[in-house]
Design brief:
heterodimer; A: alpha/beta; 41% helix; B: mainly alpha; three-stranded antiparallel β-sheet; 13 helices; elongated
């Protein structure tokens, strides 16, 4: 990856003004392209104003790459138009599904990792990359369900996808922490199992405890600061693979811009220290 | 890595998963259905159900802020959940979700005591459609002024992409809607009669003004391809006292026409 991206922030409409004004080396912003696929109007103008000052990442939530159907061509075309318009440094999607029969179900839904599903997802990623003429990074989702039907571990499945399609990985450390807790596996072993060269981007976010169930599930709620245990996993990961563009992701209970900047600075310091170490080595 | 799941039907699994989320009847059987039966017995299944339904309801609440203010968030969420279950989003761009919500409210028995609610929802929808419509260059008054009188009368005026108008025949929906948008209470002296609204976009901001029945017919005629003379005749057919010059001037000022 030939980028000079450090730590970035999710871009929220209430922070557009401050984002345009903000100046710091290596800062970047990430948006869901689905919020900017309209024909015109002020939202696109705001995004372009931010883009004039900062690098952007387009983080899709609706391509449904783990679904049985091929990606919607009309959606891909609209996405390609947005890419043309804002020239993002990074493009990513999820290992999940969210559409069926012309309807959209706004979540990242799970799929057993079978051999046949691997073929399907690889074909969907290849088609996406061919249409967009860009490499995309695939994110590991949060898990809440035990499935005995998997043929592949998630780390092997993701690694095989990178091998077959040349796609990258977006490693969401909070999702690893949440899933490891919910399904009972070792988060560090998960992080260590992924090939360093494939990891294009990292996500950090807050989670919460599920109040509805007795099962003490952790929920990937993106409504709180990054938890200490997730920072610890992040340091471990950066220690192994070196600096990578890292996003502080917040989608709910959005605090003041300054509070997000402080969290972003924490990640930036870890990245800067790791970069310096690599130079010395 | 053995192919033990070669018989697994991915699409059938998706269909069964969604049926379980919406708690709908699942008629089929097979490997995908059996897997979902195991999954829905786990507490984690509710996380997906809650997220899908909440995200859809949240999108409706974001797109219909005046309706939310009128009925309160609790009532809105309960009613929106019915609509969400009957009509899930078709578009992955959730700002475009809710195209059929006004119609749903119009026929929803629980809203029968609020006969203006569906028309207020129409205006919320109109606002969104203006907000996200394509950028166009507005018609300049000077362009019309430069035309000879005969050319002016035969000129066809095309409303811009970011323009909507709505006539509510029996309800003062515009007064109620604009009070919600402005964060104000509805005036006590509200006259209970039909009203129209015109929404357009100027420098990225959606703006609104009252629309007379004549204005709405005039704009309908423009969209149908009528020239200025015949659009004015149609408007005056429903509103004989209409001042067409004044109408044209206010429409141009609100950047209603594409240049």
């Amino acid at each position: 990856m030939q980028t000079n991206l450090g730590a970035g922030l999710s871009l929220k409409p209430q922070h557009f003004g401050e984002a345009v004004q903000y100046r710091a080396g290596q800062m970047w912003f990430e948006v869901h392209p689905e919020n900017y696929l309209m024909a015109g109007g002020p939202r696109l103008a705001w995004l372009e104003a931010v883009r004039n000052q900062h690098q952007l990442s387009l983080h899709g939530v609706s391509l449904s790459l783990a679904g049985a159907a091929a990606p919607d061509q009309q959606h891909l075309q609209r996405l390609a138009n947005l890419i043309d318009r804002v020239q993002p440094a990074l493009i990513s999607e999820h290992l999940a599904w969210s559409t069926l029969d012309g309807h959209y179900f706004p979540d990242l839904l799970p799929m057993p990792r079978t051999n046949a599903v691997l073929d399907r997802v690889a074909a969907n990623i290849a088609q996406t990359q061919d249409t967009l003429k860009r490499r995309i990074a695939i994110e590991n989702p949060s898990h809440y369900l035990q499935m005995a039907q998997h043929d592949w571990s998630e780390t092997d499945f993701l690694t095989e996808l990178t091998r077959r399609t040349g796609c990258g990985l977006l490693l969401d450390v909070n999702n690893v922490y949440v899933s490891a807790h919910n399904l009972g596996y070792d988060a560090v072993a998960y992080l260590d199992a992924l090939p360093a060269t494939a990891i294009d981007e990292i996500h950090l976010a807050g989670h919460s405890e599920d109040h509805d169930a007795d099962a003490r599930l952790l929920i990937d709620s993106h409504d709180a600061a990054v938890a200490p245990a997730v920072w610890q996993l992040y340091r471990h990961l950066i220690g192994r693979i070196g600096p990578r563009p890292t996003l502080i992701e917040r989608d709910d209970k959005i605090p003041a811009f300054g509070e997000l900047l402080a969290e972003r600075e924490q990640a930036q310091q870890i990245l800067t220290a790791s970069g310096a170490e690599q130079c010395l080595a | 890595m053995s192919g033990v799941n070669t018989a697994f039907d991915q699409e059938q699994f998706q269909r069964a998963f969604l049926a379980a989320i919406y708690q709908a009847e699942q008629a089929h059987t097979g490997s995908g259905v059996e897997l979902v039966q195991q999954l829905r017995a786990q507490p984690g299944f509710n996380v997906y159900r809650n997220t899908v339904l909440k995200a859809s309801v949240d999108a409706l609440a974001a797109n219909y802020p005046s309706v939310v203010q009128l009925v309160g968030l609790d009532w809105f969420r309960a009613v929106a959940l019915i609509h969400v279950s009957q009509t899930p989003p078709e578009n992955v761009c959730l700002i475009e979700y809710g195209e059929q919500f006004a119609d749903f409210l119009r026929h929803f028995e629980g809203a029968a005591e609020l006969p203006y609610l569906a028309d207020v929802a129409v205006l919320d929808r109109d606002w969104t459609e203006c907000h996200i419509a394509a950028d166009t260059i507005a018609l300049d008054a000077a362009q019309l002024a430069a035309l000879a009188p005969q050319d002016l009368l035969t000129r066809v005026l095309q409303p811009a992409a970011a323009v909507r108008w709505h006539w509510s025949p029996t309800q003062p929906a515009y007064s109620i809607w604009q009070a919600q948008r402005g964060g104000a209470a509805v005036q006590d002296d509200l006259v209970w009669q039909g009203e129209g609204a015109l929404l357009s976009r100027v420098e990225g901001q959606v703006i609104w003004q009252p629309a007379s029945l004549g204005m709405c017919h005039f704009l309908d005629a423009c969209v149908a391809g009528d020239d200025l003379q015949s659009a004015a005749a149609r408007a005056m057919g429903v509103e004989p006292a209409l001042d067409v010059a004044q109408l044209l001037s206010s429409l141009i000022q609100a950047q209603v026409f594409a240049g």
